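Objective 1b. Sequence-to-structure analysis of Lipase.
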Amino acid sequence: MGIKTSSTILLLIASFINLSFHGICQDDDLASGASFIFGDSLVDAGNNNYLQTLSKADVIPNGIDFEASGGNPTGRFTNGRTIADIVGEELGQKYYATPFLAPNCTGRVILHGVSYASGAAGVMNESGRIFVNRISLPIQVDYFNITRKQIDKLIGPTKARDYLMKKSIFSLTIGSNDFLNNYLLPLVGTGARISESPDTFIDDMINNLRKQLTRLYQMDARKFIVGNVGPIGCIPYQKTINNLKDTECVDLPDKLALQYNARLKDLLTELNENLQGATFVHADVYSLVMELISNFRKYGFVTSSKACCGNGGQFAGIIPCGPASSVCSERDKYVFWDNYHPSQAANVIIANQLLNGGPRYVSPMNIRQLNDL
Ligand SMILES: *[C@@H]1O[C@H](CO)[C@@H](O)[C@H](O)[C@H]1NC(C)=O
Ligand SMILES: *[C@@H]1O[C@H](CO)[C@@H](O)[C@H](O)[C@H]1NC(C)=O
Ligand SMILES: *[C@@H]1O[C@H](CO)[C@@H](O)[C@H](O)[C@H]1NC(C)=O
């Protein structure tokens, strides 16, 4: 009897040590929380490096100010960190969210966040088709479904659910390509404008977005931050091809963005009411970027119309940034890095407002408050 009891106790002790060892190990990986990032080139962290696509930023001088890569290109469409990188860093997350398609996006790395974002992607499957391959939002959510199952395997279903609901932030930065690289395309047969009114097209976008956000909710996402579409009529590309003056923007793209943005705000209100226990934070990227463009001097920039890296026209807005581009000497004095994308300096200001700002730009709470819920 004595022997039996002591071996039972030994077994108990052994499994207790085993359990607590795993417990400590897991808590260590789970302590800092994670970002799961959905979106387009504004937040792509390198997924398009692994696709056959015309939308790539894997050449110099992209990434020149990205410290983690020693200034080498990573696939980010800017000179440094994206808005999503900065937010993750400020929230104390251990790594930048790893691109889903990267070979090292395996094992416990995924517990620190994954980026599904892809240059040229839109809410709609068809958007960005002129770039050939990209991961559209519905596919990004399919990919999260794969990650979701991997997290269950890594830490068990109970912990996984808790981790996703309480310690994970789900961000969406998408919609520009549905206009710039779909609805507004002039070529017959490529844009949806031929067959659809703006109202119908925006209806389709909102319905699809509702569907994708609901799918994420079904997979235990609870803390959402959703950005609206920026002033896409004011980017160097649009200003150059439309031959505008320094302070002018193209009307139609901005009008469509504002029309979509109003519907997006209503959608998030609706989802806050209908999806129990979820919080959808609305990020007014449009107003924030418009403020930077209009009052650029106040924020230490010297121009908000000319791209730092690129060529063509008065705003260097035709040819994308690459090894042969002319590059400005003071990269943190330009709102725009290239013909489409903000510079790291602009991203820092935008991220800071979303993290810590008030209801003018981020509501019903900021990202730090969302994180602390
Ligand atoms: C995964 O690989 C990417 C691209 O090479 C790299 O930037 C990143 O730091 C790696 N992430 C981790 C967690 O090792
Ligand atoms: C998008 O494409 C995928 C795969 O091609 C398909 O399964 C899905 O139903 C499409 N979604 C929409 C909203 O069109
Ligand atoms: C996730 O994938 C499974 C199949 O593996 C499917 O049954 C389920 O509906 C998917 N979930 C969502 C929300 O798409």
